[in-house]
Amino acid sequence: MELSDAKIVIKSEINLNCYYLFNDKIIVDKNKRDYINICLPKKSGVVCFYDMYYASDGLRIIIATRNDYDLVGILNEYNLTLDITKFTK
Fold first, then answer.
1. Rg of the Cα trace of the chain?
2. How far apart are CA 28 and CA 52, in angstroms?
3. Roughly how many angstroms between the first and final C-alpha of the chain, as a whole number?
4. Residues 58, 14, 41, 85: what is their CA dihedral angle, to the nearest 10 degrees?
């Protein structure tokens, strides 16, 4: 998988990271030294990563589901964990 195939690419607003969104994972480029994979959560009905953007509460990650709603997570850019915070339609 090539980084150029990513659906969305965002440069961090708070550090030197760059985030590459794919259907099944987010690859974090830590200043071209280390690469970290953040995998799609293993929850019932989860389909794929759908969107990624900055909002007032941080770097939001939208996860598409088979349910009536999608999941919204916030990526902690310091420890690179994804916290699911709410649902969206």
1. 13
2. 13
3. 30
4. -20
Element (H, E) at 61: strand 58-65
Q: What pTM was estimated for this model as a whole? A: 0.91
Q: 47 to each of 38, 59, 62, 86, 87, how far by Cα in Å?
A: 15, 20, 11, 16, 14
Nearest to 66 by CA among 46, 42, 51: 46
DSSP β-bridge partners for residue 77: none
Q: Tokens in use for 36?
A: 């970290």
- Summarised one tens digit per residue, pLDDT across range 26-78 is 999 987 778 999 999 888 899 999 999 999 989 999 999 999 999 999 999 99
CB distance 65 to 42 below 8 Å? no
